[in-house]
Amino acid sequence: MADVRGRRGTRLSAVLALMLVSLSGCGMLPKPYRPPGGLYGSTGGRTFYVSPQGDDSSDGLRPDSAWRTLRQADQVRYRPGDRLLLQGGETFKGSLRLGKGEAGRPRQPVIVGSYGRGRAVVVPSKGPAIEVVDTAGVEVRDLIVRSGSAKARKEGGIGFYSDLKTSARLAHIVVSGVDVSGFRHGVQVGGRRWGFRDVRITHSDLHGNTDAGLITYRLAPVRAGSAEGFAHADVVVDAVEAHGNTGNPASDDRNTGSGIVLGSVDGGGIRNSSAHDNGARSSAVAKEGPEGMWAHDSRHLVIEHNASYRNHSNSEADGDGFGLDLGTSDSVLQYNLSYDNDGAGYLLYSADTGRPSHGNVVRFNVSTRDARRLAPYGGFYVGGYVHDARFVHNTVVAARNGSLHTPAVMITPGPRSVTLWNNQFVTDGAPLVVAAGPLTGVEFQGNRYYAPGAERAVEWQGSFYSSPGDWWTATGQETVGDEVVGADANPCFTAGLPVRSLAAAKGLAPGCDAARGPAVDLRSRFGVDPGPVDVLGHPLGRRPVAGAVQPQDDAGAADAG
């Protein structure tokens, strides 16, 4: 376990290295959002058109007097409210750059998009396809962006960056309805110290990139005692699919191959999105690996209603579904689905004593058949400088992969004040919980366990227990006062593994009476509100059972009265 902790301890330097280089470079998605009021709405500015049938000597102000090339379009200084529209279904080589003195008004954004039938394709020969530097009030909509050269593949496909010295964040970025592939990052949003606020990345497909589908970052490290805080604020990722972002086998000093990465963000989150099949070509000797969806150095995030699956790591670290990593605090992971990841389904970790993770909540999530390749992980992984964390009403089902048996919960040294309430933990012979000490204030209460055939049901700080009951008796876990509140019982799940959709997760509702007894009443016992609904949106009611999925038949449904 110490090895795992040491490997992950280099994440900060590796993330910064990734950022430095970046500056040089599941299913059907909903239809792209279009504002009311006609084509992208009316913002009072000029509209310019570009078409392969156009002429760069024209004024570009009408479809029948369109420009021909992006090179001509890039000569214009765009004022607030202007629109640049490329003919849908056509391909345009080149790039567009907006800089300081252009755009700049959130209520009158400059819009870059398509007109006519379909989406226009932009293929840069070098640099990003769309680059916005030291300004905001910009929307990029309904474009397909493809890398056109080896040089372009070292860049971000659509990039926003602020090098301004002022502490005010630049306001209003929208990226929507784009398909970006073949770059280092599909979409990147960064700042040296201060970046952007009111950022929306929506309804987009980010795939086949190297380091990440989407990344936000701060380039300069935060100095000890500094009030600078976070580069970005109010960043929302919604209905984004990040998949097949491969990683770089030659990048041994950093993680590559993630789906969605939020770094240095104060407020916002990820919702209704998916990250899958990422990291397949990540380095085999890197000390840290990629993750499907994760955050670092951030706070006040809500990551909900997402799926993260079949994410990989070729090294001995990560490959996780979801992660609140390295100094991410006061954030929530809820109503998510994770399965078939190489590493943990859900990870809470921080390696830096100066930037611990605290106050995070993981509730009403499902993990099935995670930790498929990496033995030091489990459905849940908690390690390092993590404190005041809560895991509430989750369902974790671990399953062997050949000779590899991974636990439902893995805890490595460091965490303190971590509570696990009213969860369902199931394995097919592996230990339910593996925890290495020292541990301070780590408490299991009201959970349900089932591990048929397990020789060691629990491994706890160097001791081994053949059943959950033996563990409770020896350690005082699963008690509140003098009452034993845990249960060792077959939940009688009907779902096959892995569970690949939330609709299929209804088969993870406990079907046997022994597993359907009322869970610990968190409101009356601890003054904690577990939340209004389960992972399927069913009301939790007054007498919920353990786990993310509540029974809905008359015999076992929670009393919603």
Task: Describe the structure in your own words.
The protein has 561 residues and is mainly beta. It contains 5 helices and 43 strands. The strands form 3 sheets. It has a 27-stranded parallel beta sheet that branches. The longest helix is centred in the N-terminal third of the chain and has 12 residues, at 11-22.
Quick summary of this structure?
6% of the residues lie in helices and 35% in strands. It is mostly beta strands and 561 residues long.
- Main sheet makeup: 27 strands, parallel
Q: Using only CA atoms, what is the Rg?
A: 25 Å
**Beta-strand residue percentage:** 35-45%
* Average of pLDDT: 90
Task: Please provide the count of β strands.
Answer: 43
Unreliable stretches (pLDDT < 50, length at least 5) are: 1-38, 555-561
Overall 3D shape: elongated
Portion of residues in helices?
A: under 10%
Query: Termini, distance in Å?
Result: 46 Å
Count of DSSP H/I helices: 5
Secondary-structure-based class equals mainly beta
